[in-house]
Hints:
The complex is a heterodimer.
Chain A: E1 5-7, E2 10-13, E3 19-24, E4 31-38, E5 42-50, E6 53-57, E7 64-68, E8 74-78, E9 87-94, E10 102-103, E11 107-111
Parallel strand pairs in A: 2-11
Antiparallel strand pairs in A: 1-3, 3-8, 4-5, 4-9, 5-6, 7-8, 9-10, 9-11
Chain B: E1 4-6, E2 11-14, E3 19-25, E4 30-38, E5 45-51, E6 54-58, E7 61-66, E8 71-76, E9 85-93, E10 101-102, E11 106-111
Amino acid sequence: DSGVTQTPKHLITATGQRVTLRCxxxxxxxxxxxxxxxxxxGLQFLIQYYNGEERAxxxxxxxxxxxxxxxxxxxxNLSSLELGDSALYFCASSSGVSQPQHFGDGTRLSxx
Amino acid sequence: QKxxxxxxxxxxxxxxxxxxxNCTYSNSAFQYFMWYRQYSRKGPELxxxxxxxxxxxxxxxxxxxxxxxxxxSLFIRDSQPSDSATYLCAMxxxxxxxxxxxxxxxxxxxxx
Lengths: 112, 112
């Protein structure tokens, strides 16, 4: 058990809808990262938050947004969903810059 | 060309074999090198974390980094059926911040 908790484990929804994925980092970790894993793209970095502030952005679509709350949990919001958004979304956390990242078990998003 | 190249396999070996997994990369700014193990329907689990060049050993696992050749390896000694999983290399560096850049993963099966 990595200590990173993601909910829900599986989400099934339709095109055009909006969903929220939730992540609780390991106790004491201030950094939260979101990654997308798809069959054709592999694991891709989306966005990083550190102690409530956005620190880095990767290949994150404008339809996607994230935030980190004062209790350090994070949410990834995906809107106007398209079939191609179907993927595994992972959250990771670390205690600081260049520290090892530990991953949750992900949310599997299926768009019908 | 991808920043990190990893042979996707699949790789099938008999129990007890020595397994060698490899990645090459093109970004000379990468300084931190990781190996993750991912079981089906689970998140990536950190196996090894190394900084710069050199070797690191942990039980049956040995990680090697050769920055001059931009080549990293993971060796698994006395492989077990429980080692059957997908192995992902990942890297980060000062210029990319804490974001991890992953290889596409090598699927390993250890046969009893």
